UniProtKB/TrEMBL annotation:
Pfam families, alphabetized: Fe-S_biosyn (PF01521)
Domain Core residue range list: 12-114
Domain of life: Bacteria
Stated name of the protein: Core domain-containing protein
Entry's Gene Ontology BP terms: iron-sulfur cluster assembly
Organism: Chroogloeocystis siderophila 5.2 s.c.1
PROSITE patterns for this protein: HESB
Molecular function per GO: 2 iron, 2 sulfur cluster binding; protein-macromolecule adaptor activity
Leader peptide range in chain numbering: none
Amino acid sequence: MVQAVPSQQRGILLSEAALRQVLFLRDRQGKDLCLRVGVRQGGCSGMSYLMDFEDPSKIRSDDEVYDYDGFKIVCDRKSMLYLYGLMLDYSDAMIGGGFQFTNPNANQTCGCGKSFGV
């Protein structure tokens, strides 16, 4: 059984707007899913963000798990080196809307906000 980190020690933070949107998208899937957040090599700034729903049965013992009132955000430890302190926000603005990543570890970001460099 994987233990979730208490709310005051979350390494990945969600704004209320982001949490509402993630829960809305999850509910459209029609099943209980967690959100996996990570990074991969690539993107115009060197690394790009990954974010996708995943079945909770795929949570590994070495994953970091953060609980938001029963909804879990999961991140592998390697990605957490680049994402610790990340704030995920959401805007429904017609221009520039969608999920926004504010990463305190990034020393450069691209114009689209979906990739970064460290």
